[in-house]
């Protein structure tokens, strides 16, 4: 029932955001619903496959739901993905996936509006925490970083930079050595979810002019393939809602594109 409800939310959101993520058909988009408004982020699996896999894992598991943007430095960045607020207290929510390698070698730059992984001094220590650049922070790029590693960019805000800027303007306070720039009143992420692919091209698996039975046969070949979610292939692009499986939720999206004309 929970997954069915989430699908209904995703499809409803898709109807409202069809023009948001069209720069690359197979790039997934994540929505962060906050108490300041929605932030839509296009992810770049082609340039940062491990980092995108990691981020989508946290999104799809519901890890980010009810967490905070716990660090804000105007003129620099806002950071989230580790703390929650309950009964006027701040609690740490530990990551449930291992650290990932730093893909900062991908050539993407920490420009205004990009999202990158936060980490500690170990360059390969990123887990669940991320930050959104408020300005061009090119000193964080691998080519310019003092540690010669820098911070991995893996996506770009495509809608809601006004929300990001509004969050950055919330007054901040020193809580302790770990929370030196805590926004208060708290800035919460109500929920985070992935938008299903919004283009009929995503269902055109054999690259002809129409979504038809040939595409369905190709789609069915990945049905419930337990190994198809690796290396950001999104089940050879048959995983249309980017949750790591080809199942009835993807079939629903496919059927909605049935007989649609596409660009071969």
Summed up, what is this model?
By secondary structure, this protein is an alpha+beta fold. About 20% of the residues lie in helices and about 20% in strands. Residues about 1-20 have low confidence and may be disordered.
Task: Explain how this protein is built.
It is a single chain. The protein has 264 residues and is of the alpha+beta class. The chain has 2 domains: 2-195, Cyclophilin-like (Cyclophilin, Beta Barrel), CATH 2.40.100.10; 200-256, no CATH class. The protein is 22% helix and 21% strand. The protein contains 6 helices and 12 strands. The protein has helices at 2-16, 49-61, 161-168, 213-220, 234-237, 248-256, and strands spanning 29-34, 37-43, 69-73, 77-80, 83-86, 89-92, 114-117, 130-133, 153-159, 172-173, 182-183, 189-195. The protein has an 8-stranded antiparallel beta sheet with strand order 3-4-8-7-9-2-1-12, sandwiched between helices. The chain has a two-stranded antiparallel sheet with strand order 5-6. It has a two-stranded antiparallel ribbon with strand order 10-11. A hairpin with an 8-residue loop joins strand 10 and strand 11. The two termini are 37 Å apart. 41% of the residues are buried.
């Amino acid at each position: 029932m929970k997954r069915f409800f989430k699908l209904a939310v995703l499809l409803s959101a898709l109807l409202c955001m069809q023009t948001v993520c069209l720069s690359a058909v197979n790039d997934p988009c994540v929505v962060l619903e906050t108490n300041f408004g929605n932030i839509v982020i296009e992810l770049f699996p082609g340039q940062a496959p491990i980092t995108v896999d990691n981020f989508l894992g946290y999104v799809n598991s519901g890890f980010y739901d009810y967490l905070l943007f716990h660090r804000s430095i105007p003129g620099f960045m806002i950071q989230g993905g580790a703390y929650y607020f309950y009964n006027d207290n701040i609690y740490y929510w530990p990551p449930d996936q291992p650290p990932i390698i730093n893909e900062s070698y991908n050539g993407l730059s920490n420009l205004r509006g990009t999202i990158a992984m936060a980490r500690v001094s170990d360059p390969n220590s990123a887990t669940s925490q991320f930050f959104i650049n408020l300005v061009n922070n090119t000193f964080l790029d691998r080519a310019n970083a003092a540690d010669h590693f820098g911070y991995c960019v893996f996506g770009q805000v495509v809608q809601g930079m006004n929300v990001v800027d509004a969050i950055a303007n919330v007054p901040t306070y020193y809580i302790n050595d770990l929370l030196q720039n805590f926004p208060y009143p708290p800035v919460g992420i109500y929920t985070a979810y992935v938008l299903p692919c919004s283009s009929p091209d995503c269902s055109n698996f054999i690259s002809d002019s129409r979504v038809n039975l040939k595409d369905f046969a190709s789609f069915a070949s990945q049905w419930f393939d337990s190994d198809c979610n690796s290396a950001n292939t999104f089940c050879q692009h048959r995983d249309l809602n980017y949750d790591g499986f080809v199942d009835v939720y993807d079939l629903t999206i496919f059927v909605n594109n049935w007989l649609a004309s596409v660009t071969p």
